[in-house]
Structure formats: structure tokens, C-alpha cells
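Quick entry between incubations.
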Amino acid sequence: MSIKAGIIGGAGYTGGELIRILINHPSVHISFIHSRSNAGKPVTDVHSDLIGDTSLEFTSEIAQDIDVLFLCLGHGESTKFLRETSINPSIKIIDLANDFRLRKDRKQPELNREFVYGLPELNREAIKTASNIANPGCFATTIQLGLLPLANTGVLKEIYTTGITGSTGAGQKLAATSHFSWRANNIQAYKTLTHQHLGEIGESLDQLQPGTEIELSFVPWRGDFTRGIFISSTVTTDLSLDELYVIFEDFYKEHPFTTVSRAPIFLKQVVNTNKAVIQLEKVGTKLVIHSAADNLLKGASGQAVQNMNLLFGLDERTGLNLKPAAF
Amino acid sequence: MSIKAGIIGGAGYTGGELIRILINHPSVHISFIHSRSNAGKPVTDVHSDLIGDTSLEFTSEIAQDIDVLFLCLGHGESTKFLRETSINPSIKIIDLANDFRLRKDRKQPELNREFVYGLPELNREAIKTASNIANPGCFATTIQLGLLPLANTGVLKEIYTTGITGSTGAGQKLAATSHFSWRANNIQAYKTLTHQHLGEIGESLDQLQPGTEIELSFVPWRGDFTRGIFISSTVTTDLSLDELYVIFEDFYKEHPFTTVSRAPIFLKQVVNTNKAVIQLEKVGTKLVIHSAADNLLKGASGQAVQNMNLLFGLDERTGLNLKPAAF
Amino acid sequence: MSIKAGIIGGAGYTGGELIRILINHPSVHISFIHSRSNAGKPVTDVHSDLIGDTSLEFTSEIAQDIDVLFLCLGHGESTKFLRETSINPSIKIIDLANDFRLRKDRKQPELNREFVYGLPELNREAIKTASNIANPGCFATTIQLGLLPLANTGVLKEIYTTGITGSTGAGQKLAATSHFSWRANNIQAYKTLTHQHLGEIGESLDQLQPGTEIELSFVPWRGDFTRGIFISSTVTTDLSLDELYVIFEDFYKEHPFTTVSRAPIFLKQVVNTNKAVIQLEKVGTKLVIHSAADNLLKGASGQAVQNMNLLFGLDERTGLNLKPAAF
Amino acid sequence: MSIKAGIIGGAGYTGGELIRILINHPSVHISFIHSRSNAGKPVTDVHSDLIGDTSLEFTSEIAQDIDVLFLCLGHGESTKFLRETSINPSIKIIDLANDFRLRKDRKQPELNREFVYGLPELNREAIKTASNIANPGCFATTIQLGLLPLANTGVLKEIYTTGITGSTGAGQKLAATSHFSWRANNIQAYKTLTHQHLGEIGESLDQLQPGTEIELSFVPWRGDFTRGIFISSTVTTDLSLDELYVIFEDFYKEHPFTTVSRAPIFLKQVVNTNKAVIQLEKVGTKLVIHSAADNLLKGASGQAVQNMNLLFGLDERTGLNLKPAAF
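Done. Structure below.
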């Protein structure tokens, strides 16, 4: 099979990662990479690490003879784009922004499209039969993977989460906090208790553990690295560590990209891969769940391709056996 | 005044920082720097950044005509050292290890010495009249500074703390987790809920808020930087943010090294200084207290000199107006 | 075709990278991964980023029904290993150490083997018909790629080269200069003018430009990053920049992993890939050639697989379309 | 003595470093810190690491009852500023930009001022009696310190220099190459053979070794750290390493901030200090001179204060005994 794919917003970080994956995907042909500001330029002018790998150029045209369209736009811009641009209804859409993630946004009668929240570990069966995917956020993915088995067991109540993210999580726009002189060797909290991913996390937990008011206090930190998210969530539970490990291992046993580890995990285990790792530790009644993922891959473009694979009946892992950076 | 100071364990990280401070301290003369393994070598053989600044050599002798002795040894080694080495009773001792920090360890009848827990923001008056100081741990210092005003108000109950520390916090011994190839761009949790500083933190909170069982769940992380600690602690309280800021500002108003900031703080504000910064954020009933300090300075050798200044009646800040690294 | 491969020394950095590549190589089956010190342990105990990707275990056995054996041992240990271990003569050997790189070491009558210097851009035809490969050094590869077209044109005389390498270039053994606290944010020269790769570079230049005494002054630096080598070599020539670009582009036009760039190159263009990039700049008679490669891939394990592909008649690129780390 | 100092351009990197030094300088009172864009704001709004250290505010006024005025403006803006702003002729000026460094720019009849090139190791006596100082560039300082003793011996002819600089060398303006995601773990050459500091270096070498056409091929690199410059220069000479060390040690023996080291030097030896270190290595006729300095201190604001000390008859080191960052 050859899936014809188009990319909107190919000059950004998630667009670039998508291209890096898709040019080596055995079942995908990239039909076009759209970028308004770079139309006509070689893709390697922007993603210069692809030198020697591709001679594709950015285009301002949007071909309609494609099977899937990836939207790699800023948050809020996907809706605008779909309203202004006629897209053949038979084309499946995978949106990497936050436009269609929440329940209230998933049905879009005006666009004549309905979106499924694309976290395969939560919604794999629904994704397989979906036409449109709302790809989860990076923090949302990594936090949820640490909590879903507990929600599924019905034991969540109060959660205290700290997470740290690399600079690519903030996109490529220049800002004081993305200046190397500031960010190198630095740590800062931001959006304390108010991060925009809290909504989608809450809805997923509610999907598995409905009827409980689950309180999630999340403190995100900016880290002095480029890729990856590391999370530690603390909850209270009487379940034993062994029982908990069994619950987690059962929950993920059919999910190839999420691994439960009984050895200490660390961020670089998953950098430059589509994998997530989870580790549990318990003292008294306090359980700490550590989880890690690459914000641009499992947290964005890798998961988008995983979703595409599911949408088109491919093995979930196709094109996603990425060599870890490791160091 | 000229205080004659001796240093035991001058080849390690805290010993080195102490030397860096004391060679520019206007009221201190370094009598000797003891290092068993480096005796006879120039100090700059080990601390080569001091090239051009000092011609001191490490010694194996311990002169007794000094006023103060700093112990910069590994944890547990201070007790051993003092048992095996006769130190003139008139010499004040400042111990940077964890040997004498806990209540049960402060009175040492065998050594004929009694130690005061040397956190000036908690015990300044007691320090001024003390003879021996147990210098607090680095995580302990930074976490406590974020919590003391709340303990003093009597509102603490459950605390969820995440902290991140630089590589110098683990000392200079070689280990898999201190290898550059591993630690660069990496994050890992360690000693989850079991960090050895929990004891001293608990006792300090109990000193200000006695009779409450305060639960502190602390998840420490290894960070990919060399210096500094950043902490976010989450607690539940009905006090308003304004009330809380007033409480914190009042608590620290006479303490020159701890500043309460209404602007967002970040780690590099305090790197290479003896300062700590604190910021508060509140959403609903959840209060997050961020705090940051340099683990080798306010968290170790800088605070040791601050304590020395207090012991000898000097202005607390003498010799500690350090230029921030800033970048 | 399925090539059966064995790996000796699978616990080190180059062994790990080789595993990372080979587990996804479509034409290779890993028969065994030998590690004396780790025999019986899962490979993921050492290379924990492979969690979820492989259930292979290190072995102490060396199976003889394989097609190719990779030696990922310390320098000097390959000779010792081959002398002490009987290896079926039909098994091809690819040695990643420096044991057989120099002319004087390539014929090994005692071992009944003859090695070809495995730089495909220099010796591709010879590699295709070889039985044993001496895989080039990392600095040697990156420096040579910047100089071979000039040697081929016969214009080299005096070369001034500075290069910087990541921490993985020094292997995983612990050392003062591999401690994170030392190496972070640091730069140091080492092996100034005496680097062990000068020999193989000199012989390659002599192969293309025989009879000239070419002087190469090489200053290597330790960099504060984990992966990659960046080189700037300065030479004197009357050829114009345009002529030079044509010479370089011609030289590499059939070589898929080495790209000549007219835009400014940078290290991260090639990190986590098997690619090398080259850029030229000229002012007056001075030509500066910049080149960059990943020391563990094009500079070691990636090139080893490229050589294996050539040895077995596969497309050079098989299994080496690696997603760049990019950030 | 109390020197009254004004600062123009106090919001930038060099302005900030100057403030960090001067607020602890025992003989200086900061009269004002001028910043057009920040007038009225606390200095800590911009330089937030100074929290707790100063309550100064940026001003738009320029008081005339000062002794010295530091210009911390962009290159080319100092001339403009002095033409547009009346400055009392008795006020000494120290310019940190490149406006007055070259011979042709040092005499400014229109401004009625004459500048001395402020490299104390070259021009200390002239600085002591000067009224206006052109403070050297950061690369210029570090490269010259490695070459001046050779120029003084009259042996320079061809010099091949590579240097690497931290991100603060490029100032605080946002740019693609200052984005953390790009610069982290990266290396790139820039301004190859055309760096703007070549002029001032050439004039200094000519001052000590007049009449020789000295060729300096300089390749600057961007490094993935914030502070510091590391240089390796290669020259050809028949002098022995011992003779050379004596020449260097003699040249710098009265200069407190420049140290010749017979042990290997590294960048972090001098970070956050006003010091420079130099090391020599020789193989055959090739001599490599390594030198390192902090670009913001010995390469900018620290040297500016050193020059101020000389201008006002103070010990050169006053206020410049800075604790090294060390890690």
C-alpha cells in the first residue's frame, strides 16, 4: 500500500519531525509539504539536517488526491485553516494542534468532520475506524500514560504532578526563555497549575474512571535540554507495588510503544524514539509514577504517524522503529 | 579581626568552594588546607581555576592555633575524624556533612561538643552564641526556605515537593550517573520519597509548628546542569496569595540572603551566589512555592561562611557578596 | 538475504550503536552479542534505551555459523582476541578498533587475514571484494572527508586542522574529563599535534596524492556535547572557490552519505545519522574546509554497517536511513 | 577614594556584568545606569539575578558630576552617542564597543577625545595616563594574550587560529543561532577568516613586531555554552618549548590576570573571573598556544574595570577578585 500524505505547516518543529519520519516510512508517499512562508524553497533550506535525504520543495498548493492530511499548525489555526480551505471529504485529517482534542470540540458539524482523541493506549479501537484524529499534546500524553492504568482501576483521587520539558516543546519562535544564554543550565516553572493540557488529561481520566472528581495539580518546568518530557506523579493508594506493577503491565501489554520498567527509567531512554517508559515506586501509601517520552515523537509527530498507521490498517509500528539517540 | 581558619577535606567540591570564598574574605586567614591524599601538592593542582589566585599547598598537618575548623568530609566521616583527632576545645567547628544535623546527633558528649543546626533563617540567634555548627544539606536548605514561613504560621499538613539538583550535588566521585555521556540532556528521579534530608527538614518544620504530623512527599531529580537546586512544593491552604506573600516577606525581611520575589524566579538567578529566591503561585486552594539556591553555596560552603560570620560577630554578608554567574 | 551477524564487545558505545542499527536492518539477523562481563544479562540492562525493542541477552559463546563478525573492542584488543579465538575463515570480520588500519597492520599472515581500510569514499571498490575491514577512526573519517578531494587534485601541502568531539568519542570508562561537573560548559585541547588518527589520515592522503610530504597539524578539542565531530581545516591554494566546489561535488557525487553543502553547515545536521557534510569557504589564498559527522555512526558503527552492506553486495544505504536527531 | 561612575546601555550583557562588578567594587559609586528602553524600571527587572543586591533603577538622565562613563552600546553606537550627547570633558570614557579601537579611530578631534587601546598587558603605562579607553574585543583579547610574547620576540609570521565562543558573545538579541533548540549540543563556524577583531589584533602585533607582514587565519566557532572563549593558535618556530615558556612567563610576570600554565588549561578555569590562562605545546617546529578567558569579563566588562582601576591609580585587581564558577 502507498498512502499519499500531505503536510500543512511543514516548516515548524512538528512538521519537520513528521517529514523526518515519513520520508523513510515504507508505506507513505509525501505528496506535498505546504508552507505559506517557504513556498518554492527546498525543504532542506529549513530542515537542513535532511540534506542529502530529500529534494522536496515546500509548496503553496494543496493537492486533493491524497489519503491523509497532517495539520502541523499553531494552536487554534487548524480550525481557521479548515474553514478557509476546501479539503476533499474523503481525506483523513490528523491534527497535531489542540483544536479538536476536547469533547466539546470533537464534533465539528460546520466542517462535517468528527475527531477521535488519538491516544492509542486509550482509544485504539476507535482510532482504527476513525476518519479524523485529534493528536494529543506532549505533556498530556506523557502524564496520561502514567495515570491511565490507575484510572482504569478506579483509584485516582488527588494527583500531584511535576513535569519537565525540553525547549522544542515551545516551538521555534524566538522568545526570551528560548534564548540559549538564558535557558542553558537553567530551570523555571511556568503555567503552574494552569497548563492547557489539563483539560484533555481530565477527560481521559474521566473516560476510564467516570463519576469521580479527580484533582490534578500539575507544575510544569522548562528544562535545559531540547527533547523530551519527564514526569513524576504522586498519588495515595493502598495497593501494593506488586499489585500496581501487574495493573500497569496488564494495561500496556498489547501496546508496543509503552513499556513498564521495573528498573529506574530516565529521559534519554526514549529520546528520538516513539516510545514511552513508565516506572513505579512506593513508600507507605504514597505511589510515585515516573513516565518519560519524546515530546516531538510520542508527544507529537511520532504519535501522529502511529495514528495514521492505525487509520489505514497498518501495523502500528510501521516506519516508527527509530534508532534511539541514546546519548 | 582576622579569623584563622583550617579546612579538613579541602580537595572535594565543598572544600574547593570554601577556599574560593575564604581567599577573598576580608576577615579570614586560611591557616591550612588539609587533604590526606593531596598533602604537599599545590591547591591549584586540584582546584585549577584558582591558578594565579593562591600558592597554598595541601597539608597533612592540623595546626591547633586556629579559630575555626571546617569539616568538608563525606557523610559519616566527620564523627570518625573528630574521634581520631584531637582538636583544641576552643576551636569552633563547622561541619558540612550530615553527622550532627539531627536532634539526636547534636549533643556529642564523647566529643565534648554540642552542635547547632546552622540554618540562619531558622536559628540565627542560637548560631551567634554557638560553638559548633551542623551546616544544613543543600536540598534541606532550599526546601526549608520555601516552607518555614508556612510552618511558622502553623498551616502545614501535606506537602508534595519535587526538586532538581545539579551534578555537583553528588560530589566528585566518578559514577555511571555522573558520566557526561549519560547525564547530558538527561533527567532521572532518585531516592524517591526516601532522600536523606527528610529528617532535618522534618525537625525544622516541627520546631516552628510542633505537634502536627506533617507529611512531606519529596521526589528528587538529577538535572543536566552542574550547579543549583530548584524546588516546587505544593500545599493546600485557604490563605490568599496576598496574605501568603506578606507572611513570607515578613519572615525573611531581616535575612539578607533570602529574597521573596513576586516575579517568576529561575535557577540561574542564584547560581554562584549565596542567595536563595522564593516565589508563590496559587490556584484555588493549591499553593505552589518555588525556591532556588546554589547547592554548593547557600546549600553548603556559602552558608558555612555565613555561619562563621555569625559565630564571630561579623556581618552575615562579609565575604559573600559574590558576583552571580547570571548566564 | 539474511546476513547472520555476531558482535564482540557489545556492551560499549560502538557495540551499542551497532545493535541499535542492526535490530532494524532488514537484511541482518543478530546471532549473538558477546560481552564477557555481561554474559547472561539482557542487552537492555546495559543499553536501557532498547527497552521494548529487544529481548536479546549478552552471551559468552561465539557461534561459528555466522556471516560477519563485528569487533567492538578497545584499541589493541582485536589482535589479541583474534589470536586467542578461533574464528571460521569464511566469516568476514569488521574491526572497529585501530588494530588493522595502517598499511603495516593490514596483512596479518598469522591470522591468515588481510584487511582493507574501510572508508567507502576512498576505497569502495576494494571494500566490495574484501573479506576483512579495518573501520576508520572517527576523527580520521571526518578529517579525511574534508581533504580527500584536494589530495585527489594533488594540491595538498600544509594543513592546519582543529576538531572538536563529543564525550562518546572517549568511550564509557569513567575519567576526570568525562565527569559531568567538569565537562559541562567546558572546552579543552588534548593530544595536541599527536592524535593517534594522524597515521591513517596520512596514509589515505598519500594514496591519492603520492610522493608529496603533506604536513597536517591537528589540534583536537574535547567538547561539551555527547555526539559528533566538527572540523575546520585551513589550507593554501590558488584554486577558486567555484573550482573547489566542483572538485568536491564531483568527488562525492556517487557517495550517498557525504554531501557537499554551499550553505553553512553545523554539527547537529548529522547527529544520529550516518551522514557527513562538507562546506568550503575561501578568503585570499586561504581555503577553509568545514566537515561534520556523528562520531559513533559515520565515525564508527554506522560506517561499519555501510561497509557490511558493501561486503555483501547490498545497497550501501540499507538499514542506514536514520532519522536525524535534528535538535 | 570613591569614583563616581555612570553606565550607558545598562540593559545589555556587558552593561549587566559591569553592574555586577561595580556594586561590589570598594572604590566605586554607581551614579546612574542609563537605558533608554528601560528608564524608570528597577535594574532587577532586567538583571533579575541582582535581586536582593540592588534597588537601583534605570534612568534616562545623564548626570555630569561623575568621574567615569562606561559606554556599553552596540558597535558603532558609541560614536553616535558621543556626537549627540554633551559629556563634560573632565569625565573619562571607557568604551566597550569597537568604535575607537583601531589606530585610525583613536583620535577623535570632533569629540575632542583621544582613546588608548585598553589591553593592560600591552599598554598598561599608556592606560595609566590616558583619559579615554577603547576596551578590546573578547576574541581580540584572548587571541592577543596568546601571541603578544611571540610578537615581542619578533618571531611571528603565519598564524593559524581556531577559537570558540559562548552564546553571550553574540549579545542578547534573539536570532536563529541563539535559539536554545538550535545551539544546544551544536557547533558552527561563522565569519571564517573575516572576523571583525582581526584589525585590532593585527595592529597590536604590529606594535610589538613592526615591519613584518603577519598573516593570521582565524576560524571562529559558535559553542554550546554561555560564557568563555577558548583559542588554539598554531605557529612555526625553532625556539624550544622551554625557551618559549620563559618568554611567556617573563612577558606576563607583572600582569596579575594573565597566567602561563605548564599544566593543561581548560575553559572553565577562568569562567566568571577576570583571568586569562595560557598553555604552550610543541611538536617538531609547530608550536600551539592555547588561551582562554571569559568573554564578558577579561573580554569585556572585567577588563573595563581593570582599565578604570589603572586610569584612577588603583591596584589593577581592585573589585576584580571574583569567585570562579569552577563548575
